[in-house]
Automatic annotation (TrEMBL):
It comes from Electrophorus voltai. SUPFAM superfamilies: SAICAR synthase-like (SSF56104). Keywords: ATP-binding, Kinase, Nucleotide-binding, Transferase. One of its GO terms (biological process) is phosphatidylinositol phosphate biosynthetic process. PROSITE patterns: PIPK. This is PIPK domain-containing protein. Pfam families: PIP5K (PF01504). Residues 1-331 form the PIPK domain. The keyword Nucleotide-binding applies. Signal peptide: none annotated. GO terms for cellular component: plasma membrane. Transmembrane segments: none annotated.
Length: 422
C-alpha cells in the first residue's frame, strides 16, 4: 500500500503553499510502519515533532555507498537515503520483520519507523527513518564499522583525517588488540542477541551487514559531553528498547553499571579495556543487501584474486558464522568470574550457567573445531570447483585445437583414422 500526496507550490485544499517546486510525497506501507512505531512507544505527534520541528543535521558517510545521512535535532532518529532496490527489498522484508519484532522487540537489528519517497522534477529520493545507535550527547572516542572480514577493511587516509573517524576491522585489531571485556552475564546476553539476530538475517539471505560500535571512555575527573548537551534524550527516553543496554537484556531487572549515579550513561553497556572503563553503544546496520546474482558474481571475482574467505561479500550462512566468530573471539571478551570454586571457569558445567545459555567453554571449543572443519571443507570444495572449471575450459581448448588439426590433415588427404588416439 502506498499513500501519495501532491504538494503544488501555490497550495491546495489539503496542502499549504510553499516556496519550493511542485513535488509529490509518497508513504510506503503506512499501516505496517505505524504499528512498528506503536510497538516502540512512539506517538504520532512526537514522531512528527522530532522530524519537522528543527532543521535536520547532516552527517558524514564513512562507507562506500552514496547514501546521505541526517540526524533529527533531538538525537532520536536517523534519516537515510536508499536506492530503489533497497526500498523494494525492505518492503519484501516487512512480513518477516513484523514477525521478528513481535516475538523479540529487544534486538540489535535496525528499527525501521518509516519509508518515504519525494518526487520532484523527474527525480525520486527515497528515505528510510531508523533508530539512532550512537547518542550525540556523549563523545564517541572510537567508532568502528565491523564486518568480520579483513580484505580492504582498514579506514582510508581521508576517513582518518576526519574529526570523528570511523575505523574498521583491521584498525580494531591494532587499536584494541585485547578486545572489550564484559562481565559474564553481559557477555552471554550480548552474544545471544547477536546470534539470534544473525540467524534472522541468514534466513532472509542477507549479508554484508556491519556492527556499528561506539566507545565512550569514562574519565572520572572530566565527563565529556557532546556539542548538543541539551539533547532531548537527556530529559527522558522517548523510544522503547532504543538503547544498547535495553537491546540485549531480557525480561529481568536491568543490570546496574558500576558508575557514578550522577552520570547519565545514556543506556550504554559498561565494559573495560585494559585499565579504562568504557560505555559501549552498538547496533547492526546496512541489512538491506541480499545475496543476489550481482553479489555472487562480485564474490566469485574477488575470490579469484584474493582469499575468498577474507572478502566482505559471501554466502549468508558463512557470513553470519564469520561475523559471530569475529565478535565473540576478537571484539568482545568475557571477564572471568571471581569465586571460591577450586576449578577454573572453563570447566563449569551447564548447570552453573543461564538456562538460555546452556554451553561451556569446552562446548565452545568443540563447536569452533567443528566450524573450522566445515569451513575448510567448504573452502576446499570451492577450490576444487574452480580448478575443475579451469581444467574443463583448458580441455575444451585442446579438443578444439586437435579437431581443427585433424580436419586440416583430412583435407590434405591423410586418412582420418591415423589421428584417432587410444
Amino acid at each position: 500500500m502506498v499513500e501519495s500526496v501532491f504538494l503544488p507550490s501555490e497550495g491546495s485544499n489539503l496542502t499549504p503553499a510553499h516556496h519550493y517546486p511542485d513535488f509529490r510525497f509518497k508513504t510506503y506501507a503506512p499501516l505496517a510502519f505505524r504499528y512498528f512505531r506503536e510497538l516502540f512507544g512512539i506517538k504520532p505527534d512526537n514522531y512528527l515533532y522530532s522530524i519537522c520541528k528543527e532543521p535536520l543535521i547532516e552527517l558524514s558517510n564513512p562507507g562506500a555507498s552514496s547514501s546521505w545521512f541526517y540526524l533529527t535535532s533531538d538525537d532520536e532518529f536517523i534519516i537515510k537515503t536508499v536506492q530503489h532496490k533497497e526500498a523494494e527489498f525492505l518492503q519484501k522484508l516487512l512480513p518477516g520483520y513484523y514477525m521478528n519484532l513481535n516475538q523479540n522487540p529487544r534486538t540489535l537489528l535496525p528499527k525501521f519507523y518509516g519509508l518515504y519517497c519525494i518526487q520532484c522534477g523527474g527525480v525520486s529520493v527515497r528515505l528510510v527513518v531508523m533508530n539512532n545507535v550512537l547518542p550525540c550527547s556523549l563523545i564517541m572516542h572510537y567508532k568502528y564499522d565491523l564486518k568480520g572480514s579483513t580484505y580492504k577493511r582498514r579506514a582510508s587516509r581521508k576517513e582518518r583525517g576526519k574529526a570523528s573517524p570511523t575505523f574498521k576491522d583491521l584498525d580494531f585489531q591494532e587499536m584494541h588488540s585485547e578486545g572489550l571485556r564484559f562481565d559474564a552475564d553481559t557477555y552471554n546476553a550480548l552474544m545471544k542477541t547477536l546470534q539470534r539476530d544473525c540467524r534472522v538475517l541468514e534466513s532472509f539471505k542477507i549479508m554484508d551487514y556491519s556492527l556499528l560500535l561506539g566507545i565512550h571512555v569514562l574519565n572520572k575527573k572530566l565527563k565529556e559531553r557532546g556539542s548538543r548537551g541539551d539533547s532531548r534524550r537527556q530529559g527522558g527516553q522517548k523510544v522503547l528498547y532504543s538503547t544498547a543496554l535495553e537491546s540485549i537484556q531480557g525480561g529481568g531487572k536491568p543490570a546496574e553499571p558500576p558508575l557514578d549515579t550522577d552520570f547519565d550513561t545514556m543506556g550504554g553497556i559498561p565494559a573495560k579495556h585494559k585499565d579504562e572503563k568504557l560505555l559501549i553503544f552498538l547496533g547492526i546496520i546496512d541489512i538491506l543487501q541480499s545475496y543476489r546474482f550481482i553479489k555472487k558474481v562480485e564474490h566469485s571475482w574477488k575470490a579469484l584474486v584474493h582469499d575468498g574467505d577474507t572478502v566482505s561479500v559471501h554466502r549468508p550462512n558463512f557470513y553470519a558464522d564469520r561475523f559471530l566468530k569475529f565478535m565473540g573471539d576478537t571484539v568482545f571478551k568475557k571477564i572471568p568470574r571471581l569465586g571460591s570454586c577450586q576449578k577454573p571457569d572453563v570447566i563449569l558445567s551447564s548447570a552453573h550457567l543461564d538456562d538460555d545459555m546452556k554451553f561451556t567453554e569446552v562446548d565452545l571449543a568443540t563447536e569452533t573445531s567443528t566450524e573450522c572443519l566445515k569451513q575448510t571443507v567448504l573452502k576446499q570444495r570451492d577450490i576444487c570447483a574452480t580448478v575443475s572449471a579451469i581444467t574443463l575450459a583448458f580441455l575444451l581448448l585442446l579438443i578444439q585445437k586437435e579437431l581443427r588439426q585433424t580436419l586440416f590433415e583430412t583435407a590434405k588427404g591423410t586418412p582420418l583414422f591415423l589421428h584417432l588416439k587410444v
